[in-house]
Amino acid sequence: MSRIGKAPISVPSGVDVTIDGSSVSVKGPKGTLAWDVPDDITVVRDGDTVTVTRPDDERSHRALHGMTRSLVANMVVGVSEGFRKELEIVGVGYRATAQGPSKIELQVGYSHPVPVDAPEGVSFEVPAPNRIVVSGIDKQLVGQVAADIRKIRKPEPYKGKGIRYAGERVLRKAGKSAK
Q1: Model confidence over 56-98: pLDDT tens digits?
Q2: Tens-place pLDDT, residues 12-50
Q3: What's 49's DSSP letter?
Q4: The predicted structure's pLDDT at residue 15
Q5: Taking a C-beta distance cutoff of 8 angstroms, is the pair 25, 18 a contact?
Q6: Lower CB density within 10 Å: C or N end of the chain?
Q7: In degrees rounded to 5, what are phi and psi of residue 73?
Q8: In this structure, are residues 125 and 148 in contact, taking their beta carbons and an 8 Å threshold?
Q9: Contact, 119 vs 67, CB < 8 A?
Q10: Cα separations (Å) of 39 from 36, 53, 72?
C-alpha cells in the first residue's frame, strides 16, 4: 500500500468536499477548486475525513493512488489556508513594483521594465522592492507563476544576481584568476 495514498485527509470545518462520480470539488472560505479523478481510483468521504483507494497493486494504480491523495489534500489546504511562494531579487538596481494586486513590474537589468500579469486566482504582493510574494489557492498554479517570474532573470553563478526563491542557495563559481 502507498504510505502517502493510504493516509486519510482530514477536512477542517468550513470546508465542503463534494464527490460526484469521478469529479471532486472542494469549497472553502478562500474559493472553490475542482478536479477529475483518474478512472480506477476511488475517493470516498466519511464524515470529516476523505480516503482514497485503488482497486489493485498494478503499477499504474500505485502511481495514481498517492498522486490523487496528494492533489485532493492540496485542494483542501488551498481553499482553507492558501499557498505562498516568496521570491528574492538580488542585484544593484534590481527591483519590483506593484501595479495592483494582479500585476507587477520588474527592473532586472534589461533596457526596459518587464511587466508580469497574474492569472486568475493568483495575487502578488511586494512587501519590499527586492521581495515578491505570489499567493493563491491552487498550489500548482502558484508554483508555476513563481517559476515563470524566476525564469525572467535566473540567478547567475558568478555574482549571484537575479531572481531566486526565498532561502534558495545559489552555487557560486570562482571568477578568472589573475596571472
Answers
A1: 989 989 889 999 999 999 999 999 999 999 999 999 999 999 9
A2: 999 999 999 889 999 999 999 999 999 889 999 998 999
A3: E
A4: 93
A5: yes
A6: C
A7: -65, -40
A8: no
A9: no
A10: 9, 12, 15
